[in-house]
Amino acid sequence: MGLLVALAFCAFSLLAGIGGGGVCSNEIVREVITADGHSKAVVYLRSCGGTVDYTSHVTVLDDNDELGEGKGNVLQAEGGSAWDAIDIIWRDNNTLQVYHQIPAKRVYVENERVSDYEIVFGTCKNEIISEVIAPNEQYTAVMYERYCGENAAYTTHISIFESGRVNENHHGNILQAFGGNNENSIEITWDDSEALRVNHRIAEEKIIRQKEKQFGVDVIYERLED
Predict the structure, then answer these.
(1) How far, in Å, are 42, 68, 95, 113, 218 from residue 116 at the CA level?
(2) b vs e for 60-92, b when ≥16 Cβ sit within 10 Å of the residue's Cβ?
(3) pLDDT tens, position by position, 76-95
């Protein structure tokens, strides 16, 4: 009887493992289609549950193909860099430019050719526009423009960092928008140590990402009148 119970427990444990942490899922971060509409590049996060960390991926597909649950055929890297450190731009219908600042030790796969597609890797550059320290000096709000090469438009970003830990290479962790700062007319000020105010003239369709809280700091957005 004891042997039967033990075998049943082992079988249950095996099934639980298959249906639990071993199941992976993908979350699309951004998708860019070629000018001819025949292909697409996708940046996504992959999670396999449990205590396994996210991985970041870039893959190229025919436009009618679904992402499925596979790994990236262009780039695979440890961590959640897909959210804040990967940009993709089609130079033409067969050449994909991939910009990222992921440390080499965290990159598993980096292919320079996938089927008929050439992959060109590069890095983006950020130019800080302004920095504002919170009254309690615990956090720093940083606004900057991001440039990823001649085929890409400027984007404007805002991040909140713990003071002394400013990272100048990533996307904004509270705001990302198409266009330069002069065009978007953004100003950042601290109402107090727990509230950052962002005054702007950004058109709704130009906002890529917008968060209302970071590190416990409330972010208040106010659209300026023209």
Answers:
(1) 16, 21, 9, 7, 47
(2) bbeeeeebeeeebbbbbbeebbbbbbbbbbbee
(3) 998 876 666 788 888 899 99
